[in-house]
Amino acid sequence: MIASLTGTVTHVTLERAVLDVGGVGYLVHATPGTLAGLRVGERAQLHTTLVVREDSMTVFGFGEADEREVFETAQSVSGVGPRIALAMLAVLTPDALRRAVATEDLAALRRVPGVGPKSAQRLVLELTGKLGAPGGGADDLVPDAAPAGGGDPARDQVVEALVGLGWAAKVAQDTVDRVLADADDGPVDVTATLRAALRSLGGRRG
After folding, report:
1. CA angle 134, 136, 138 (to 5 degrees)
2. Where are the alpha helices (DSSP H) in 105-189?
3. Which CATH code fits 148-201?
4. How many helices (H) and strands (E) does the chain have?
5. Which pLDDT belongs to residue 162?
6. 139 pLDDT exceeds 80?
7. 144 band by pLDDT with thresholds 50, 70 and 90
8. Which CATH architecture has domain 66-127?
9. Is the separation of the CB atoms in 46 and 64 below 8 Å?
10. What integer pLDDT is reported at residue 152 of this predicted model?
11. CATH code assigned to 4-62
12. Which pTM does this prediction carry?
């Protein structure tokens, strides 16, 4: 298993990054929050896990070891694969997920794309006692930054990322347009806009 990678960031998008480690470029999938902390040309360290399938080997990266542990544990739930586990961490912090499971807060779990009423109940049932106790923080959602508005290419990037996380294209488009309409004029901050859209969407995936 690849437990961590340390190298130079050579490429970053809304869903993945490339880390050059000793001349080998590793494609790493991560949450918007983790990717927002990476800068092309700078060195970075990511805690990683390798997911092996019959037709693929995919590396997932995290800024904190705790996120990796939650990601791996979440996949012990029936019906939860890497995509939904990563979406959980894109919307909820590890401690927020722990609190949601401990308090049986199904509404919080349903904010995650791909998680409906039945799967939220299954998460509570199968994760109880596996994630550990939550810390003292009170934030339920991954924090968002204030976005700036305008810019079609950046808008399309955010819409594509939301669709990749599981929301319907129409829902993603309407949400991004609403977020940008509420923002000040100026260049679009893609990562901040995505985070604001995630907060606005909540559990709606229609």
Report:
1. 95
2. 106-109, 117-127, 152-165, 169-181
3. 1.10.8.10
4. 9, 7
5. 79
6. no
7. very low
8. Orthogonal Bundle (1.10)
9. no
10. 57
11. 2.40.50.140
12. 0.70
